[in-house]
């Protein structure tokens, strides 16, 4: 089996609010070097995927604010493979647009979709897992690559299988589960028959578009018309007319959950050192180094320093060239950027999104 | 009585380590606008003193690193009134040098000496108190202006009087007391016969120099030779030869304490809203405004913003133009400057000096 006909789609959206002030609406996390190298998350994603599909068959779907950033960071990506949404309409619209454009360019192709802001340490195993998922897609399944859970995480959705997950083995997905409570998550993980949903999808574009058309004609209709005009001189007019009519809905909710109920969804359990770079705890746990007394630090630009004196469980993310020093503090996250500084209790890290809303109310939207 | 013959000396030294990273060796606190206006502490001191002595009779003693800063901040001060020490030799050397230069320029003058980094709210009462101290100096006393204590402060030395302090009345000083314990300080304050020593001195320069010569010829000798060469083409050679030989000693220890034992020191209790801008607590208590939920902030340059969400007793000193946001933290001091950020437990504020020593050990002396 080869991956010759595989297309890869990378939805690159979301501002990464829980990483504020590092991640901004104008400079979202996927453009940052949160990888332990000087490559951005998007570039690392590109590097990981181009062995599976050359740049000619790799498409990035992004927003108007980030089209230039994507283009500059990925010079090998053809212009026509950067699909720019006029404004965000959630994941179903982004993925359906890519599927429809691919289907138009290469009918009956297989496409795989991976987020722009995940880290994967074992790229060989990742590639093998994708190959298996492609095999499942050729058999007609809407495939998802589920992640073998390593902890009872409450921040992700889960996939329920009919049996114990087996690495590398195609298995039916019975159900998509929303983010669970800690108790429920613990039960999921100990059962061995649940996987994390990392929104990694592999399918034949014609089958996906047919499922979409059957279930959500309100999405499929305008997307089909937009795709028909794509790469023509009518693209902009059609986008302007129809894009605002596309409903905002997640692809899981619109297609995958109902399809799973009908036995059309399968998964390949993946175990390749996957991480969602969603918050500072994760960033510093994965990429940081111990600094001083009781501190751990990660500087994306590797140009800033942290000094922690008499600290305990202090996380420092210096990213402005400045020195960040802490004295006698504990359980803090300190993030330093060129125009804003955050000092946050570690237990409140999930509320950073709320803080950004308060800043907006205070007229500080320039900092978001 | 007039102050026609009064000379005023402002020793402008010390880097204000407890205000790091706001105050630096290269940019010490007296050059900062820690006054609630755009005037620096030094400029506010100048403004307060020029009604007592015109710039021609006002001398600033400072170090090589700050001569330019002093000159730029005080354009009305004659060049020849900026006495630049080759390196710091403690307060006795600085004050004796000024006294000797004044005595050479105007024999038998009265001089008053005030620190460059104190805040005084009632300048009229301050001026009246100085006038009374000048009267005491003319009577032959080595005068000090003691501050009526408002709390059992353990960070200052105290003056012991023979009786209850009376505002505006010249009274003998029996003894200079070192910084006391809290218990002792409480006893001092409740007794009513102790004043804070703010190192404000007023005396006839000839009498001070005679006391110095009698008690510390090792200081008086080289200072006399240096002063004799001052304003001549030999000044630099004599400074180079003799300044390194001047012992490092505080003027209280060298002159005032032994003179007090002989009944030669008196004080005028002062009550004019005096503050020592020694730490962030004081800065923000005196000059700050409440921000957000549980925060208090002071921005010396009034160009930076702080947003405190779900905070408690949070002190923010933003001074780089950036936004500083805190979320869910308490009892913290956050200081933001152009090249360094400090996050410090409030109970550890007195250890900031230690932190700067650690930074030096870590090779971060550039930030000091």
UniProtKB/TrEMBL annotation, chains A, B:
<feature type="domain" description="Nucleotidyl transferase">
    <location>
        <begin position="9"/>
        <end position="282"/>
    </location>
</feature>
<protein>
    <submittedName>
        <fullName>Mannose-1-phosphate guanyltransferase</fullName>
    </submittedName>
</protein>
<dbReference type="GO" id="GO:0004475">
    <property type="term" value="F:mannose-1-phosphate guanylyltransferase (GTP) activity"/>
</dbReference>
<dbReference type="GO" id="GO:0009298">
    <property type="term" value="P:GDP-mannose biosynthetic process"/>
</dbReference>
<dbReference type="InterPro" id="IPR049577">
    <property type="entry name" value="GMPP_N"/>
</dbReference>
<dbReference type="InterPro" id="IPR051161">
    <property type="entry name" value="Mannose-6P_isomerase_type2"/>
</dbReference>
<dbReference type="InterPro" id="IPR029044">
    <property type="entry name" value="Nucleotide-diphossugar_trans"/>
</dbReference>
<dbReference type="InterPro" id="IPR005835">
    <property type="entry name" value="NTP_transferase_dom"/>
</dbReference>
<dbReference type="InterPro" id="IPR054566">
    <property type="entry name" value="ManC/GMP-like_b-helix"/>
</dbReference>
<dbReference type="Pfam" id="PF00483">
    <property type="entry name" value="NTP_transferase"/>
</dbReference>
<dbReference type="Pfam" id="PF22640">
    <property type="entry name" value="ManC_GMP_beta-helix"/>
</dbReference>
<feature type="domain" description="MannoseP isomerase/GMP-like beta-helix">
    <location>
        <begin position="305"/>
        <end position="357"/>
    </location>
</feature>
